[in-house]
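Private note to self, pasted from the team thread so I don't lose it. Backbone tokens:
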């Protein structure tokens, strides 16, 4: 038997004035950080758009002996674009947390507030997965360099 989610408060917890202020402040900082991330993503896209040919030429000049790997620059640009797309999605989650939590607190709408917290959960879940991938790759790299 699956239990259906309800809109009843968990353990009768409610957001009081102090908690609301703390969450509002956290949402304000999250919005600031996400806007900074959006600016960085935009600048990265501009750099890639204007300098992708120069980046490919620089990579080719650095590795002239690798004639068969002339497409490495294109692959690198493609990988950077994929990382930027993932980073954009993660930043959108952080921005949605900030806007929905503040809106939920202001209107005292529990559903909007819960949606905001759900976005924060997804943001940390995705960042946690990438952190684990990074840790595993570092451990594998360290072990492989030892042998």
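Design output:
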């Amino acid at each position: 038997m699956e239990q259906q989610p309800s809109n009843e408060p968990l353990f009768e917890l409610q957001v009081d004035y102090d908690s609301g202020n703390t969450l509002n402040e956290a949402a304000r900082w999250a919005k600031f950080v996400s806007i900074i991330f959006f600016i960085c993503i935009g600048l990265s896209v501009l750099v890639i758009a204007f300098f992708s040919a120069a980046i490919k030429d620089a990579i080719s000049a650095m590795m002239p002996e690798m004639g068969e790997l002339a497409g490495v620059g294109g692959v690198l640009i493609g990988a950077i674009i994929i990382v930027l797309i993932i980073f954009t999605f993660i930043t959108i989650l952080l921005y949605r947390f900030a806007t929905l939590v503040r809106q939920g607190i202001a209107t005292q709408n529990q559903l909007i507030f819960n949606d905001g917290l759900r976005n924060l959960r997804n943001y940390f879940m995705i960042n946690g997965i990438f952190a684990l991938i990074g840790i595993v790759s570092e451990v594998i790299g360290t072990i492989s360099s030892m042998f």
